[in-house]
Design a protein that fits this description.
By secondary structure, this protein is of the alpha/beta class. It has helices at about 30-35, 40-60, 80-100, 120-130, 145-165, 175-180, 225-235; strands at about 1-5, 20-25, 65-70, 105-110, 140-145, 190-195, 215.
Amino acid sequence: MIFLHNQSNCKQLVSSSPRHVAIIMDGNGRWAKIRGKLHIFGHRAGVKAVRRAVNFAIAHHFDVLTLYAFSSENWSRSSQEVSALMKLFSRVLNNEIKYLRKYNVRLCIIGDINRFSIQLQNSIRRSEKLTRNNNGLILNIAANYGGRWDIVQGVKQLAMQIRSGVLNPDQIDEKILCRYISMSELAPVDLVIRTGGEHRISNFLLWQIAYAELFFTDVLWPDFNDAVFEGALDAFAHRERRFGGRLQV
């Protein structure tokens, strides 16, 4: 179930709208390189695209928007770029609180934040606390996140319950493990969008996107706009989601 941005002549089967959209925001560095700039200029431009995407999600009444901001593998980038990203992340957290509160958006950070500086950890907790009573769009930012890490940390929690005698190994099934995976209390991911032209998941929400539809576009993240987002929704509406079952005729 893969969508390409230039896909055409799709047979319309079911018209529906996603409740939970997840986006792999790729292409900031290439966007900057094309313009002869440092990567950080692309990341700054990407922040504007984030605001556009959030506005779109609010306007289209999504329940949840999840954005892949910084993967656990991104630490392998140059120390200068990582440092600049951390400063940008902290600044955005502090600057966007007023906007999030105005539009009733609840911010959640998913991922292992313990590797971040104490200052950034405090900014994260402050931002989540100030928006936790908002009951509109839920905005998840995946930061120092990896899908494998997510599953492993869930398994570790189950292992501790088994060791303490609270849980029997024979009781473990998908439903129980799911409780310990990020975003277990939210609507499942319906649609994954990846910008930048790559056709891979890159360790993003491996558990949560088991039955999600996939949409890939060549558009670099800083250029992602409402028209591209509409294209993804249109592609989604032209699919019949079978969740592993057969088409009913």
